[in-house]
Design brief:
Tautomerization of D-dopachrome with decarboxylation to give 5,6-dihydroxyindole (DHI). Its main location: cytoplasm. Keywords: Acetylation, Cytoplasm, Lyase, Melanin biosynthesis. InterPro entries: Macrophage_inhib_fac, Tautomerase/MIF_sf. This protein has a single domain, classed as Macrophage Migration Inhibitory Factor (2-Layer Sandwich). The chain is α/β, with parallel strands linked by helices and 118 residues long. Helix 1 links the parallel strand 1 and strand 2. Helix 1 packs antiparallel against helix 2. The strands form two sheets. The chain has a four-stranded mixed beta sheet, with helices on one face. A two-stranded antiparallel sheet has the order 5-6. The chain has two helices and six strands, in the order E-H-E-E-H-E-E-E.
Amino acid sequence: MPFLDFDTNLSQEGIAEDFAEKLCSAAASILGKDKERVNATVRCGLSMVVGGSSAPCAQLIISSIGVVGTAEQNKEHSAKFFEFLTKELNLGEDRVLLRFHPLEPWQIGKKRTVMTFL
């Protein structure tokens, strides 16, 4: 059950109307998860600084169980997420940051319990 938290200083008009859906589809493919299990939050128009500059930029936090826990996994994921984000947002690679957070099943609540018991 991946969670995506996407932040950008681009305005809502600066990204595609269906960006959240495209991001979910891309993440599902990249992480090998069902699209229906991917959760995304997209926040636009934020005050952000990346690399000392407030030029257009974006940050994506990827949290998931089992697929973002090693440097080798994240190196592969990073290349694919960068390809998607730089193309979709028309940003240079130096204007995009990714953060990977491995999760444990007991850290995700669903259906009145945690994923450990589902």
